[in-house]
Amino acid sequence: MKILAVDDDPIALDILGECLAQAGHEHVTLETSAKRAFDMLRETSIAYDCVLLDIDMPERDGIELCADIRRLDRYRNAPILMITKHMEQAVVERAFAAGATDYVTKPFAFVEVVTRIRVAHALVQERRAALDSYLALQNSVGQPAVGRASVRKSKDMPPVMVDEEQHVSGDNLLALPVFRNYLEQAAREDKAKIHLTAIKAQYISRVFELTSSDEFLEFLKMFARAISEEFAPEQVFMTHMGNGVFLCSSHHAPTRNLTKMEDALLLTLRKLVETSGFVQDVPVDLVMGSALKINPTPKLNFCRASKAAIARMDSRDLEQNAVSAA
Fold first, then answer.
1. Does the predicted model carry a pTM greater than 0.70?
2. How does DSSP classify residue 196?
3. pLDDT digit string, tens, across residues 8-25
4. For residue 201, what is the DSSP state?
5. Long-range contacts, stretch 298-303, CB < 8 angstroms, 24+ apart
6. Dist CA 42 CA 207 (whole Å)
7. CA-wise closest residue to 302 among 163, 221, 186, 161
């Protein structure tokens, strides 16, 4: 595994290098200059598998450098771990909005460094394996192979993203593991304000049947875009859980009641779909759960929190169905 670690503090960089060496990583490059590090990433013949960036650097901070790295095609989806002593929610949000995969906090804990690098690398390997399997299947049945921005379309599987896009530009749509990392880091701050809301695209199986792979992916992006617009001006991070269910994290619970929020969100989504150029008309509807407040905690139970938010959404879905049936 080829790793690049960037920190303008030579002592901290040496400690990090020792941690990586003890973990058995032999191909590690340590760099104190953000500019030289970017040149290395851009010019190396063999791309780095993982990049660690200190946030506080004089010539270009790590968050700015992270955003620059994400603009390089070969690093659009490579793990980028931020090295920082800052745990303020605003800093965490800036980092993940720029494309960060995870955080490593100072002072370094050997186990944490090794674990987070291992998890980040496994995430990339799983994405590549899923994509390779999908492309092989496409080729074996004589269908034209699709690009990396694709969707697995199988009657035996629910509609899920298999492309490697962990950050859809402008929409703050994160891959599920990255979204979990974000919530876990944000919840550590004592003054963290986090509300988790589950929103589901109704009739998603029908949408899946009526659209091509690219169209279905575009529908999911439009759904995320509609959420971003309706939560504006507040920044919202979200992830697609599969089957049309989105989890959204915001500072505050929506001020409007759920019915008005759903109506506004649905109107925005329908306008986006109408102008999308889909060949077939797709059913567009949604249901939104009440916001779940997440209290600050040093160790967030993401599984429990996400299930609780989705349960609120399911409960509202049942209520609406009961009203419709009455």
1. yes
2. E
3. 999 989 988 888 888 888
4. E
5. 298/188, 299/184, 300/183, 300/184, 300/187, 300/188, 302/180, 302/183, 302/184
6. 40
7. 186
